[in-house]
Amino acid sequence: MTQLYIFDICATRKFGCYGQYNQKLNEKNMGTIKNGFWKLSFILTPNEFRDFVKYCKELEIEFNDQRGEDIQEEYTKFYNSLISDKHPKKYLKQDSISYITINSFVCSLNVKDSIGFIISPANMVHWTHYREAVRIQGWAVQITLQKGVSVDKEDEKGKYFIYEDIQLHSPKSYPLYLQIISYIKNITKPLRFKIHNIDDVEEIKPPVRISEQVAIDLANSWIFKNYEFEMISYQKKINVKFS
Q1: What angle do CA 132, 138, 139 make, to 5 degrees?
Q2: How far apart are CA 220 and CA 214, in angstroms?
Q3: Which of 27, 71, 205, 229 is most open to solvent, judged by the fewest CB atoms within 10 Å of its CB?
Q4: In terms of domain of life, where is this protein from (predicted)?
Q5: Is the sign of the CA dihedral 64, 70, 73, 77 positive or negative?
Q6: pLDDT, tens digit, 9 for 90 and up, residues 165-186
Q7: Where does the pLDDT of residue 33 fall: very low under 50, low under 70, confident under 90, or very high at 90 and above?
Q8: ∠ at Cα 45 (102, 238), nearest 5°?
Q9: Contacts 24+ apart (CB under 8 A), 92-101
Q10: Which pTM value belongs to this model?
């Protein structure tokens, strides 16, 4: 029996207190892997995201909000929460650290007869501002595809499961993933900006891609202005538009 798991769990015995990855099963075994995810973090404007959804539908990929909400409306809420020029609604300051929570966006991308993808919030980030710091939760989204599929096994010691390469079980998934991240990469560049430390200015290179309009919107956001972040991505084009 084949089972699909979203979460990154090590292969383990189902019955008994073994808990560790079965040493018999390693990378040398055909198709056996340690599970993980391919992922790409990005920020698009709502209009760009709408075009992305349209492109995915042409590839027969359907978007589904698990809460039954409208996909476009939920993404717009996330984006507006991020680039707002107003003080964040979800803001907390404890000692020298400020905590900001952006409206989260989560949806699944379903592919008929294949394993699909998940779009979810990127990990929390921690950036300094002189002697203080800001932590931002949900500041970007990431699209992920699991690398492995769990497969039930049994031997003389009992039942357990291993992870096998997703391409053995769902050969369409990875090629589709490459197509859709290629679309995103073609309309984005890596996010680059400068922050202030105690003694100097540091360039930040988070693993996130943004479009030109996103760079402009972020540069004008409350977060960037309040913490004196200086946008570097698309800098020449942005300077021309602002001049």
Answers
A1: 65
A2: 10
A3: 27
A4: Bacteria
A5: negative
A6: 888 888 999 999 999 999 999 9
A7: low
A8: 105
A9: 96/131, 96/132, 96/133, 97/132, 97/133, 97/134, 97/135, 98/132, 98/133, 98/134, 98/135, 99/134, 99/135, 99/137, 100/134, 100/135, 100/136, 100/137, 100/139, 100/223, 101/136, 101/137, 101/138
A10: 0.81
